[in-house]
Amino acid sequence: MEKQLLEMMGKLMEQMTEMQSEMKDMKTDMKDMKTEMNIRFDSVESKLDVLDVQLNSGFKQTGERFDTLDKKTEKLMTQDVRFLKHKMHQLEEDVFLLNKDN
User: Fold this and answer.
1) Rounded to whole angstroms, how far apart are CA atoms 36 and 42?
2) What does the alpha-carbon distance between residue 69 and residue 77 come to, in Å, rounded to a whole number?
3) Cα–Cα dist 32/27, whole Å
4) Torsion of CA 54, 60, 62, 65, to 10 degrees
5) Lowest mean pLDDT among 14-28, 54-68, 74-88
6) What is the 3-state secondary structure (H, E, C) of the chain?
7) What is the pTM of this model?
8) Quick check: 24 pLDDT over 70?
9) What's the average model confidence in pLDDT over 66-87?
10) Alpha-carbon gap, residue 19 to 27, rounded angstroms
11) How far is the C-alpha of 53 from the C-alpha of 62, rounded, in Å?
């Protein structure tokens, strides 16, 4: 009976040693996975940073183009308004002259 208990204790110790070894392996695997995930996240983050810079640059260029377009549009509208005022003035003079002749 004592011999059986000693054998069982020996087997139990072997199993515990084996479990400790497996737990150490799992801990190592988890550390490796953590390192790999950090590398992956760093890679994704750097790509997102590049994308952010490109998008901001594109938005800035688009904004500058809109500003240029606004200035050109305002200039054209000013020219058109002057032209229309001139034509209205001419028309008023013509109408006034027609009324004067009658």
Assistant:
1) 10
2) 12
3) 9
4) -140
5) 74-88
6) CHHHHHHHHHHHHHHHHHHHHHHHHHHHHHHHHHHHHHHHHHHHHHHHHHHHHHHHHHHHHHHHHHHHHHHHHHHHHHHHHHHHHHHHHHHHHHHHHHHHHC
7) 0.52
8) yes
9) 87
10) 12
11) 14
pLDDT at 102 (0 to 100): 61
Q: Which two tokens stand for residue 36?
A: 């790999």
Phi-psi region at 47: left, alpha or beta (left = phi > 0; alpha = psi -120 to 50): alpha
Q: How many residues does the chain have?
A: 102
Q: Whole-angstrom distance between the N-terminal and C-terminal Cα of the chain?
A: 143
The rounded distance, in Å, linking the Cα atoms of 70 and 63 is 10
Q: Which amino acid is at 37?
A: M
In whole angstroms, give the CA distance from residue 22 to residue 28.
Answer: 10
